[in-house]
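Hey, can you fold this?
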Amino acid sequence: MSDILRRHRVAALLGAALIISPFVISFAQSASNAVPTTQTPVAGITAPNGSFAPIVAADKPAVVTVTTVMKAQPESTDDGMPLGNSPFDEYFRQFFGDQGMPAPQTPPQQAPRAEALGSGFIVAADGTIVTNNHVVDGASSIKVTLDDGTELPAKLVGRDAKNDLAVLKIKADKPLPTVKWGDSDRLMTGDQVLAIGNPFGIGTTVTAGIVSARGRDLHSGPFDDFIQIDAPINHGNSGGPLVDVNGNVVGINTAIYSPNGGSVGVGFAIPSDQAQKVVAKLMKDGSIQYGYLGVEIQPVTPDVASAIGLDHPGGALVSQVNDGSPAAKAGVETGDVITSFARQDVKDPKDLSRAVADVAPGARESLEVWRKGKAMDISVDVGLNGDDVKTASVTDGSGAPSAGQGNRVPAIGLGLMDITPDIRQQMNLADNQHGAVVASVNPDKAAAASGIQAGDIIIAVNQVPVKSARQVTQAIAQAGKSGRKSVLLLLERDGGQIYVAVPFANG
């Protein structure tokens, strides 16, 4: 394991901002022995009226340091390294496995309790504090240090892992300073912002920058919609406020992209408009119940829109309907494009995920779908989502059968085979599995460029089920003769289903 990865892992155990490197996702929490990385100053930042001092003077007293003592972890890696401090541990395994993890200095049962360090901010004078969920996840005790140095025990009011937010409460002998929520929806790329927090545990620190981008999806949760900033944030900044030039909170600093463990000017914050709704629910109920439809969805690209007859891309394409789910009971079908939910337009899959999540389980809502060239309305009873929706994992094609004899579709570059008893056994397919197996993909043709892999099973062409390689070949040829610019294939891949639009123009 590299020194960089080791620092990331230690930070995940001892300290709190999320780190995103080209290979690793983990917490950027502050460790007592962390060494700050040299920062590159942000050029061209001009404070309003020549100084940010009035904003800092108003907001800094409401920013706190959150220190947690972590619970002992019941599981460990083969070398004794505890697991469970981070929902992103799987990323370490995905890229590195368990090899090279640092060995513990003492046996796990004798290891001292680890402390994690993060930031937060006071939103109510009664001591209500907002921070990240990953700052307090797994904590056996929580302590808050105010800007004046006062240390107070904190109670966990509620937390939400999906949005990575938590609410704490402290008791003080006087009203506490607060910061106000701002309107993150009004933020524009290029707007000036300040990040306030306690990086590396050195004390409350302020950094300046601009909004670099909006709507970033880091694949760390189902509702990612991060603000990207270049104001330097580091280990320990997690949970601290991102404020605008009016001193209002427009985001919660959460993550950094870093190849070396330090700030390189690419940070991420949860938008205040998203956070404020979640915080209000946590303050009231301590937890959040999310709505659930039970569909696997994917974007409607221009090629997909062309293949199904939509005049423009948009909405969420249903690639699979989970058995027994609210969507299945309501009559949603694979191949439907959901264009609105609860009378609100759906521009993309994230739109739908967030809209459904905001609906209370049990509510009856309307869906508008595009099905086989027609728009139709469906009523659905929204269910309860206790877990993140799982997506089909991508096969590496290692289980694919050899090419052998079969049909070929030279226009898009596919070699196909029927599902014979031997192939059914080789690929461990169910007795009722129908379609055509992709035996080969021409790397120079459109099918390869669209992501089709050997071992995929084509089960529908342009939303019409197929049972054999011959039917697939004929359906693709017919789609080409009809003048369509692309053909829509429904693939079975590693237990899940996914639509792939293959353009004829690139064939």
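Oh, and this one too while you're at it.
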Amino acid sequence: MNTYDVAVIGGGIVGSAIARLLGGTALSVALLEARDDVGDGTSKANTAILHTGFDAKPGTLESRLVARGYEMLGAYAEATGIPVERTGALLVAWTQEQLDALPGLRAKAERNGYTACQIVDTAEVYRRVPDLGPGALGGLTVPGESIICTWTTNLALATDAVNRGVTLLRGHRVTEVHVGSDATRLATTAGDVTARWVINAAGLGADALDALFGHDRFTVTPRRGELLVFDKLARPLAPCIVLPVPSSAGKGVLVSPTIYGNVMVGPTAEDLTDRSATGTSEQGLAFLREKGTALMPRLMREEVTATYAGLRAAIGSDDYLIDLDADQRYLLIGGIRSTGLTAGMAIAEHIGELLGKHLDLTPRAGLPEPPRMPNLGEAFERPYQDSAAIAADPEYGRVVCFCERVTKGEIRDALTSVIPPAGLDGLRRRTRAMNGRCQGFYCGARVREIFEKGTQ
């Protein structure tokens, strides 16, 4: 049995980013994912916003890493083709109390190093977002907030890691931990994995894994966030991200465009005990309808094409929990929540600083170039629109999913990629196939046929 220098547990954005960083050194690295695909847990279902960190708690590790991650992921997106739209955001005040809070929010942003926020009056609010419901009293602009593809981000980082030599082990759920004098043996559902150092980036399962190392220091509470996704015809109604003014009850419900050309409303925030409860609820969707009617009544008359829910790993703290145990050669990353999308690469950089005191993390020479990812963004040229690509390869002109304009060439590329999908959900995240208004009703059988032939 091989003994890896480092085993990273969790193939979400944070774990993939760490594996990518460590894969750029001389260390041998394994990335273990409990599910059959990377990014199939918390990382796949969030609001997909590239955050400036303007509203983080000043002075926290989260504040620093979100701000750093915003710059790092922005640059990485340019290099890899991860789609990003710099839409900006607008916090809207609907009550006098919220209006009075805007100067404090701007000051908070400045303490976080973000100085571009501006307070605007009612007329400017409606000039920016004409279809808002009546009653807005003012707003705060956050021009740097952006929308991004969380699926492509996760896949790019994991692909980069594998290209750098990281061993990806899917379907490896850790069930036991045996810490030895020189290495730790991880018993998994697919056999044992041994490593000198172990990094816990297991998201919703981080506390259970931490307990296997003998700790009892935090509990993950799954916080369900449900969302409504509206048809692409609604996109003009949401030219930017519309944020509520935060309160003691949380950040509240937002209206946001998506990178795929839709508009979403959400999320809810419901603490659960079931870590697999990613289904939507009648109460949650009714709540979003009620909030959405007040925020943007015209949007509620548009067609809903999908509803979904994601679980955030809340730990009852307003900061990340990152801790290194040198005696056990073990590093914990907990409580990352939804900001992990933006902060993931900066978290990896921070982990590198901590591990650098114990391991040689000198970058290897001759690393491969970052992977170039397929574009899933509606605002950018897609293969079915690219006459040169179609002339070179007619498969890019053969549309299979008509709602999302996904071609047979794109599905083929996904199936032959460095990390091919293990199932149709993974294919959906790589191509947008079956992600449109019909949700696979018309194209599902054809997509499945191509998938099954391509995986035989």
